From TrEMBL:
Belongs to the glycosyltransferase 87 family. Keywords: Cell membrane, Membrane, Transferase, Transmembrane, Transmembrane helix. It is found in: Cell membrane. The keyword NADP does not apply. This is DUF2029 domain-containing protein. Residues 403-427 are annotated as: Disordered. One of its GO terms (molecular function) is hexosyltransferase activity.
Length: 427
């Protein structure tokens, strides 16, 4: 009877069942988000200003002459970014946009694979289709494709940087980071990580690549200096539209400046504590946790306290979310994932019955999500620090403490990888 039961009702095999479920769903989501939603576009169009700037650049016309008083998307890339975007204008705008969406999807799929590999899993494991499914179910990925933004390439550069940094390929690690800086320096806070880890060579290439591209673009541009005199001051201002940062949210709702300042200082202080704690106790004992959690803290804080934080920047927090796989992760609590829902969900809360309430949730969900995520991570690390003090542990965290909430290990065959990923960050 037992043998018959095993034949008729085999046990659940996650490695076989989960990919069987998620691969077809994920593939259909990728097609729907790109071919339908992406090609359809929306009222917000981030691609047209980039294409027009590239076209002006190729025709030796001024690039930085827009009127920044309007709320329409503007061209905000530096001269190095203009040089990299210039090939788009060789073909007509519609096909150029389709091509950009295609490469964005490829970059997102590659990012899902690199994130899976970073945590020691292979492409045959159940983790890869799960990550891919999560990617394309979020607002940040959907709107990156719908608005046709550069964010997917920033995410790819970030994950390539992390893998090369973990493997101690310092000269190479700075190159993908530098390429993202050349177009969109949103990852600039991550320069603190190789600095803290004494991997100086990363800083050389990360800064050198955009510098070289700027030097190449400067003589080919008609008005490169206007980026620094007109565009950069605009980027440094806090605007009250399409801005989920604390400053932008406060300006939109007329919050007193002193309260906005207090909130910004409070979140900056949380970040300082979190970075210090992770550096002191986890940099050498759990380098992958240190890298992914610290990067998430740096970027989420920058989105909140900086002049501009847009909802689709949230995709750069994917490594922090993935750290839930690691023992000691500050993501192992439900308030953190409630915050994740706030800044990643693709739901809409506009209500015809409770219009004011629904509008308030819709316009504030990203700010609240980032805030709750930061508070949950801070509290998780603070409580762990207090436990350490109570236990009298003053040095690096003990292995037993670090692994106190570790999941049961699985074989390489179950994970779908040929061998486990070896962290060499502290070499």
């Amino acid at each position: 009877m037992a043998i018959a039961d095993r034949v008729l009702f085999p046990q659940f095999n996650a490695q076989r069942i989960i990919p069987m479920i998620l691969w077809p769903i994920s593939i259909m989501m990728v097609l729907e988000r790109s071919i339908i939603l992406g090609v359809n576009g929306d009222r917000t169009d981030d691609f047209t200003p980039v294409y027009q700037a590239a076209l002006r650049f190729l025709n030796n016309q001024p690039v930085y002459g827009e009127a920044y008083q309007t709320v329409e998307p503007h061209y905000l890339y530096p001269p190095s970014g203009t040089l990299l975007m210039a090939p788009l204008a060789v073909i007509d705008p519609e096909r150029a946009r389709w091509l950009f969406i295609t490469f964005s999807v490829i970059a997102l799929i590659a990012s899902a694979y690199l994130l899976t590999m970073l945590f020691g899993y292979g492409w045959r494991s159940w983790v890869f289709p799960t990550v891919l499914f999560f990617f394309f179910s979020t607002e940040t990925v959907a709107h990156t494709l719908i608005f046709t933004n550069f964010n997917s390439f920033v995410l790819l550069g970030m994950l390539a940087f992390m893998i090369l940094m973990m493997r101690n390929h310092q000269w190479w690690a700075g190159i993908p980071l530098g390429l993202t800086f050349a177009v969109k320096p949103v990852l600039a806070p991550l320069l603190l990580l190789p600095l803290l880890n004494r991997q100086w060579r990363i800083l050389v290439t990360a800064v050198g690549v955009p510098a070289l591209l700027t030097a190449a673009a400067w003589p080919a541009s008609v008005d490169p200096m206007k980026f620094f005199t007109r565009t950069y001051p605009y980027l440094s201002e806090v605007r009250d539209y399409y801005n989920s940062s604390i400053g932008g949210n406060g300006l939109h709702y007329g919050v007193d400046p002193w309260l906005v300042l207090v909130l910004r200082v409070a979140f900056a202080a949380m970040a300082v504590f979190g970075l210090w704690f992770l550096y002191r106790y986890y940099r050498k004992s759990q380098p992958l946790l240190w890298l992914t959690a610290s990067s998430g803290i740096l970027l989420c804080t920058w989105f909140l306290v900086g002049p501009l934080g847009q909802g689709y920047y949230s995709m750069l927090l994917f490594p922090l979310l993935m750290s839930v796989f690691l023992p000691g992760s500050p993501m192992r609590n439900w308030p953190a994932w409630l915050g994740v829902y706030g800044c990643f969900n693709f739901d809409t809360y506009f209500s015809t019955r409770w219009e004011t309430f629904g509008r308030a949730i819709e316009y504030n969900k990203v700010t609240w999500g980032w805030s709750l995520l930061m508070i949950a991570v801070f509290c998780s690390l603070l409580f762990r620090y207090l436990d350490l003090r109570k236990a009298g542990l003053a040095g690096p965290i003990l292995e037993e403490f670090a692994k106190s909430d570790a999941p049961s290990t699985q074989s390489d065959e179950e994970s779908g990888s040929d061998r486990p990923f070896v962290a060499t960050l502290d070499k």
